[in-house]
Structure formats: structure tokens, C-alpha cells
Design goal:
Layout: H1 2-78, H2 92-95
Length: about 100
């Protein structure tokens, strides 16, 4: 009976040791995954910031182009069109 008790105690100690090892392994895995997630988050934030800057630059360029087009159309509306050249009847020498 003492050997059965010693066996149960040894089995209990083994189970407790295995659970402690498993908890430590899970904790290490969780820390590693959190580190990778943080790195990915930082990388994605950097890419989003770069895209945000690029979109801002594109907005400025589009605004400049719109302003130039608007100025060109306004100038065209204000500037009278040149008169077409007078039509002339061809001379008999030119018609031949």
C-alpha cells in the first residue's frame, strides 16, 4: 500500500511538473506571438503613414491641376476668339 501511495505521489508530481512546463511553454509562445504582432502592427502603421503622405501629395497635385485648368478655362472665356480670316473668292488664275 505504501508503494501505491508513493506511485500516486510520483504520478501527481509528474502531472504537476508537466502542467507547469506546459504553462511556461504557453507563456513563452504567447510572448513570442505578441512580439510578432507588435512588429507587424508597427510595419503596417509605417506603411499606412507612407500611403497617407502619398495621398496627401496627390491631393495637392490634383488641386494644383484643377486650379490650372480652371484658370485656363476662365482665360479662354474672357479672351475673345480671333476673327476668322475673311473668305475670298479665288481668282480665275488660281482656279485654273
Amino acid at each position: 500500500m505504501d508503494s501505491d501511495l508513493a506511485g500516486f505521489i510520483a504520478l501527481g508530481a509528474l502531472i504537476i511538473g508537466l502542467f507547469a512546463w506546459l504553462r511556461q511553454d504557453i507563456r513563452a509562445l504567447r510572448d513570442e506571438m505578441n512580439g510578432k504582432i507588435d512588429a507587424l502592427r508597427d510595419e503596417m502603421n509605417a506603411k499606412i503613414d507612407a500611403l497617407r503622405d502619398e495621398v496627401g501629395e496627390l491631393r495637392e497635385r490634383v488641386a494644383r491641376i484643377e486650379g490650372l485648368l480652371e484658370a485656363m478655362f476662365m482665360r479662354r472665356d474672357l479672351t475673345p476668339l480671333p476673327e476668322p480670316p475673311p473668305s475670298r473668292t479665288p481668282d480665275k488664275s488660281e482656279a485654273a
